[in-house]
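Final report, results section. Input specification for complex C-07:
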Amino acid sequence: MKAFLVRRIYTSFITFIVVIAIVFLLARMTGDPLAELANDPRISPATIAALKAAFGLDRPLHEQFVNYVVNLFRGDLGYSLHYKAPVFDIIMQKLPYTLALLIPSITLSNYLAYTIGIEIGWRRGTRLDSVFMSVSMFIRSTPYFWLAIIFLFVFSVQLRLTPIFGAVTPGKSFSLTWDWISDYLWHYILPFFVMTFRGFLSELIYVRNVVVDVLGEDFVTTAVAKGLPEKYVKRKYVARNAMLPIVTVLGMRYAFIIDGAIQTETVFSYPGTGRLVYEAIFNRDFWLLQGAVVILTMSVIVVNFIIDLLYAYLDPRVRYR
Amino acid sequence: MSSVNVYSWQYKLREFWSVFRRDRAAIVGLVILAVIVFIAVFADYIAPYNPFARVGRPYEPPSPKHLLGTNDIGQDIFSELIYGARASLFIGFVAAVTATTLGTLVGVSAGYYGRVVDEILMRITDIWLSIPSLLFSIFLAAVIIRTGRLPMYYSVILAIALTSWPPVARLTRSATLSLKERPYIEATLALGASSRRIIFRHILPNIAPIILVEIVVRTGNAMLTEATLSFLGLGDPTVKSWGTILNFAMVKNAPILGLWWWFLPPGLMIAVTVMSVMMVGRGLEIYFNPRLRRY
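Structure output:
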């Protein structure tokens, strides 16, 4: 297990460095990082040269890269020209809102997809199965953000059940913590529902297909043939064996739900990191966007690492490979 | 009975059709897709107005004159929608072909040359996959726009293509690996055929079905990504695609103002088109992989 852990930490680190290198090179491809300042007539060329020296931009590219990585570990992701604040601080301030959406949503949608997926996989070829399959196929063909817009339109605009933007009512003062929590939850419910619904449906087809594959295995035939109760076969033989492939794709699910958060938060004007990505595009705030890419990808690498540990725990063969 | 040449393309086409037409979903998909392609090609004749011209008052509701009303500057939304088919399909298809070509290049090289090449290429593929794909295409589009060397139209295509090749690379790699072990490839190698000949004569034609299915499936995904990038403001605002219509509708708060005729139809068009593309892709997959067939 220890050797596995060491190897896994090593590969995570390599992944991290390569991702940083890709982001760094792409960012440098866009030309001078101080271009926005250089275009400002109020700033003299001497100031630009001084800034270049201060940021180490006059040194060779590989030195700049080392500098970049070192700064990254110090939590320095550059400076947002729009917010006039360090990128790291802005992202960290918004990240809790996003994580509070992501983690419960991915947990609930996976739980639902797993339990319901096993049931409809077991009933493959029935009407229930085809209804679920067609609905999730159609929903997966809709643009994510558009589905969020439809929910916003129906529940917030037409039915007036939920607010149309934000995480709490702006300008409202809360005398009790409970007031704040209930206001927060009132804003939270619809974005959370959209992300869970979408995540659930895209996971469902996958679980169902895995279950259908497992049902074709000889050990299931044997279990049924020797007269084990249906419930027992489903729980102990099918559900257990379907679990591994489902855990394998959890990391990809997590990356997918980040993409979903960007769109959901944009539609609901929810003040998280995803909305920050949209604002960075809108304000042409390139360094903020770059910071968001680095932080969010880092979270994917960490989640993948945790999932691999979980996988090694579930499947002993992995540990000794 | 007269003999049938099973290698002729007429025979293959007939055989394909006999399998494909039994798949009801695939036929429905094909018909819908054909209609949408028709609309895209003949948009000039079908659209009642020029989608770039101001033909009415702003924010008109649907009426016989303007079937889906007008937008914030008085352009006919129904005509925008018809022209939108053109840009959405074109961007999706070109991005899909580019991504599939790139993925095939990586996958076949990794599978054929093996060892270090395989190790490096697959490591890169895995790392590429660990970056959330939409976030990555947003970043790439922003990078390309910031360099300012390409028109925005192409930056979207490139941003989608550069982020959607890894699944293709994985598929073509494993297909190449299993082909490489076949005795006839070994025999060709023993006869002294060059790598280039083996790849182009024996490997690529054999994985052509996979490539074809991938192009179809990637087109659907690319259309969704195009819509999302355009919606987030990274599309070319001078091009009418379903995504840019939705971007303008959102910027002008159409959902909050209750202007459903502005934001509902473009999304539905995307959903219907993507779904029909996926159904055709599924039909092709079933044809090429007999194990998926149900008789």
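The domain at 87-145+196-320 of chain A is CATH 1.10.3720.10 (MetI-like fold). Chain A touches chain B through 51 residues (CB under 8 Å). This concludes the modelling results for the funded period.
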